[in-house]
Design goal:
Mean pLDDT: 95
Radius of gyration: 23 Å
Number of helices: 8
Strand order of the largest sheet: 5-2-1-6-7-9-10
Order of helices and strands: EHEEEHEHEHEEHEEHEHEEEEEEH
Helix content: 25-40%
Number of strands: 17
Length: about 300
Amino acid sequence: MKIVFMGTPDFARAALEALIEAGHEITAVVTQPDKAKGRSKEPVASPVKVCACSHGIPVLQPRRIKKPEEMDKLRQYPAELYVVAAFGQILSREILDIPPYGCLNIHASLLPKYRGTSPIQHVILDGEEKTGITIMQMDAGVDTGDMLYKKEIAISEEDNYETLHDKLAILGGQAITEALSLLEEGKLIPEKQQEEQSCYAPLIEKEMGEIDFTQGAMAVDRRIRGLTPWPSAYTSYRGRQLKIWRAKPVYAADTFAGTPGEILKVEKDCITVAAGEGVLCIYELQLEGRKRMSAHDFLLGVRMEPGEKLGE
């Protein structure tokens, strides 16, 4: 099929590569403008732009795609449908109606649950056991269009935002290519979303990373995994920020008693901290001004003592 692809980050790049590999004709790619990064403030192209350029695909980078002049540019590229994945701009009804098959969105959740901007983080924060990709027919609402195709994936106890993102990026590429095969065969059946089953996954804010040890150890672990690598989960230790990168909740009957945030035990490879329920074994952390490191390496340079408290 002839497709205009709209997307920006790595999640979208994986889908673009899958469409190209499947033999679809990508007539143009629409992505966000280059952004200044690093100390040099040099403009950096999005992963989708880099991919498009490597395949010789024309690239459009509108600051506001809903402007009439930008829509005129878009109409110059023939397409049977538009495929959208984490583009970063809202499409107007006029844009949605340009291609004959409309616009299909690759959404990183099992709709109608977790509509919005941050579904991958929130499924971990909420303790969901599975998630997936939904291919959706876009309408004027936010992730409210008809569902066309789904693929599920289990969330492991080891998954954090980074690992689950990468799994879903690959799954998104598989889902869109499979969905387009069914579309070409006339076998895609739209399914309305049930509003009563929906929930929203709002934007992740940096302040959400602060750890509350009065919560259960499992909830603290989900916060660590759901916010790794950004904005990361953090507390304080001796007046300095302490990021916790990897931990494991323990609810065994013989766990030590202590107040939330209290360091209960310091071992060679693990720091045990009390939570509101259960304890948390910390295996990887980072003290402000230092590198991220294992608990073993951290303890070689910092003498932690049982009875000290995190978060004060």
